[in-house]
């Protein structure tokens, strides 16, 4: 066979057209929301809505998920609840409804949808993590620990799970164990301000001292000392609070007023 015949055989027939590729809006929007690419998700959702029938359930689910990602918690809860009441048992709906209720301070009402989410889709780490926090609110510590463990095994964002588990241990009065959790989180994200602050609080509550990091400038170290002093004050350790706050005043003028105000609530040191 000649090259000409080969090329002719490969050429498309006159008038024939290839079908247009189908855009998987649901998957792309889910990926964008999960990756915190909110503007991208908004743009794709607008395109999807204009190409869909009014009231399309997949579009409504994406709309509710986007509202939750944007922090519009009450709107998200209303939307998820409406979809759920209409008979949907979609994992994303149960997960979103549970997370929204949890953020609205309705931990007890979040347990059922979150349990449904992990039962039907056991690979969703956010549902497990939210369920763990909900169990914390109910002081169901063994259940929360198991849920945190499952979330940690599944997640690609271990710092978030470690932070929440550390706070859980602190709430249980297990600050020494929380220290271990926050130390591990700090190895993964050494500059995460949330992990640093919560880790310092765990150290103070466990009766251990905090130490300055090489990355701490004068303001950063003074802030940490001030926060540590306030934690010590809250747990009733006036001596530690006075020591931390006094040291903070020597490190940075910026934090002197805050440290001085906290020191004033302690009163003079007894002879």
From TrEMBL:
<keyword id="KW-0677">Repeat</keyword>
<keyword id="KW-0802">TPR repeat</keyword>
<dbReference type="InterPro" id="IPR011990">
    <property type="entry name" value="TPR-like_helical_dom_sf"/>
</dbReference>
<dbReference type="Pfam" id="PF16918">
    <property type="entry name" value="PknG_TPR"/>
</dbReference>
<feature type="domain" description="Protein kinase G tetratricopeptide repeat containing">
    <location>
        <begin position="9"/>
        <end position="185"/>
    </location>
</feature>
<dbReference type="InterPro" id="IPR050498">
    <property type="entry name" value="Ycf3"/>
</dbReference>
<dbReference type="InterPro" id="IPR019734">
    <property type="entry name" value="TPR_rpt"/>
</dbReference>
<keyword id="KW-0732">Signal</keyword>
<dbReference type="InterPro" id="IPR031636">
    <property type="entry name" value="PknG_TPR"/>
</dbReference>
<feature type="repeat" description="TPR">
    <location>
        <begin position="159"/>
        <end position="192"/>
    </location>
</feature>
<protein>
    <submittedName>
        <fullName>Tfp pilus assembly protein PilF</fullName>
    </submittedName>
</protein>
<feature type="signal peptide">
    <location>
        <begin position="1"/>
        <end position="16"/>
    </location>
</feature>
